[in-house]
Amino acid sequence: MANPHIAVIRLTESGSFDPDVRDTLIVGPGMGTSVNGLFTEMAQHLTHRFQVIGIDLPGHGQSPAHHEDVTIPEIAGTIAQLVKNRRQTGTIRGESKVYFAGLSLSGLVALELALEHADLFDGIAVMASAAKIGTAEAWNERSEMVLFSGTEAMVEMSAQLWVAENFHDHSKLDTQKQALANADDQSYAALCQALANYDASDRLGEITLPLFTVAGDQDQMCTVADAQQISSAVQNGSTAVIKNAAHLLPLEAPQQLAELLDSHLL
Question: Three-state SS across 207-219?
Answer without folding.
Answer: CCCCEEEEEECCC
